[in-house]
Amino acid sequence: MSAATVLAPLAQAAVPRDTGVFEFLLDGQRWTGSPGILGDLLDTVLLCAAVIALSIVLAVPLAAYLAHERKAQLASAWVVNIGRAIPTFAIAGLLVPVSLRGGYGFEPWPIFIALTLLTVPPMFLSTYVAVKQVSPGAVDAARAVGYTERDVLTKVELPLAMTVIFTGIRVASVQVVATEPIRAFLGGDGLGRYVRDGLGQRNQNLVIAGAILIALLAGGTGLLFTAIERLVKPVGVRRLGRPKRAGRLQSADPLGLAGEGTEGTAGSADRDPVVAAADRR
Amino acid sequence: MTGAIGIGAGVIGTAVTNRNPILRWSYFTEQTESIVEALVQHLQLTLSAVGIGLIISGALAAIAMKYQWTVGPITGTTAFLYTIPSVAFFGVLVPYTGNSAITAIIPLVCFTLLILVTNILDGFRAVPVAVKDAADGMGLGTSRRVLTVELPIAMPYIINGLRIATVTTVGLVTVAAIIGYGGLGRLILDGLRRAFWTPLTIGAGLSILLALLLDLMFYWLGNAVTPWTRRKRT
Fold it and tell me: Domain of A217?
């Protein structure tokens, strides 16, 4: 197939087939060269960071407000369900010709929008559930001592819900990083290119090296967010201690839809609410 | 297939033009066979992955309920499998299982396990102790108690788990196109490689429709197996 088109063909990472997996990964030239692993890593990290930041801004304040007001419970459940049904690769694919028609090129808008659609629903859900699960006693007490509704939300509900909200953000962020590599199959580069080029060149070692890089970044993202989670936990909440909190935040009915089958307890501090927030690609 | 996966390097060019519109309707009649074939493969991959996932998850959940200490390791392992990036998982298996359906199915199954195990366990945990005691008191044996009393109560959770797992899998199957087994995902990837938008749009559109349809189906199924929740609501 000829490569003479409007779009310059992407540079392939040319790697001899007899290069070992670790020989490739530990070669400094592979990291600093052009195209190099560092450059691709930066590409991926920047895109993911932008997606995560935008999703937090879109999902968390709105979900916290709606949960505080106890509004839009059914609508939220439907948004989350439909959000889950959206396959990221398909959405990004659909957006490619649209983006080209608008003159924005193959990249990065289609994958950016698709990843944001992937991330917003679970973040919204975990925030909604977290705020809704704050003990009514605490909220009533705050109202009784004269807190305004705004104070109730920002000084009582959000600090108490923070741990669960952040767990949701962590899970969604790991999903973003784990999904971003499909960008390499959508006309972009990023860390997924080594798997793509390896598959294209039938170079197994390159595929495995690429997979290791992607997996390490996803794992690292999880660790990073766990660390942030510890840092942002409000001092007062830290003093509450674990057993009490775990008990209070438990609820089997995240969006008030019992009977339809619920989505796991996003509340328990001991258990990962991966499934409650689970949304993948 | 060409050796290298070059994207957008097509003869048709990348621009959206009259000759290469986003969707040409006549493609449906011209290429009915390949579209149906892709749709069928998509369904096959999804259903077999969720089916195998359900069997494995059922066994894992049974072990977890019988031996409490296994809950942690089982949840941990399935959670780990769940976070493996899809592109990496599919790619890494190619050297071992080749470009076969197995290579596509293994990651798909692994991705369903966490969702299914968690929901099955949640379901059986939702059975009130008093109900179990009543069943024991009526003289039901363990297997009859589990099958006729606990399972119906756990059913909405299990169906919900199946719903999430199925919809998620429909999306993930498209990614399996990178190893040549993506069902509708192959239309997407072929469309991208050739910068030919009609198959891309059809593949993506149909996979989204399929996900929504299956989601709706499980919603109805969930209602159908829990008639008592409807009685309670009205």
Answer: 39-248
